[in-house]
Write a structure and sequence with these properties.
35% helix, 4-stranded antiparallel sheet, 3 helices, alpha+beta
Length: 79
């Protein structure tokens, strides 16, 4: 089994983006807070975080919104 790794370092992500999460987590609790890289990995996993980071880096706006079907919304605010 191959272990997943982030495509970007946590220092790069935290230096360039603020990550806000809104919606309902796996336990059914409402969340609306800023999270770091480890908090985002706990919510969606490494593979989805890599996908969302690619979108955020290619996005030219100040905010990149990424939504999941299960009701979680990630907002990547560029610094």
């Amino acid at each position: 089994m191959k272990a997943e790794a982030l495509n970007y370092s946590t220092a790069f992500i935290n230096r360039n983006y603020r990550i806000k999460v809104s919606g309902i987590d796996n336990e059914g609790n409402k969340i609306h807070k800023l999270v770091g890289v480890s908090g985002a990995i706990n919510l969606i996993g490494v593979e989805m975080l890599n996908k969302f980071l690619g979108r955020a880096i290619n996005c030219m706006d100040d905010v990149c919104v990424c939504k999941l079907r299960r009701g979680i919304k990630f907002l990547f605010y560029a610094k």
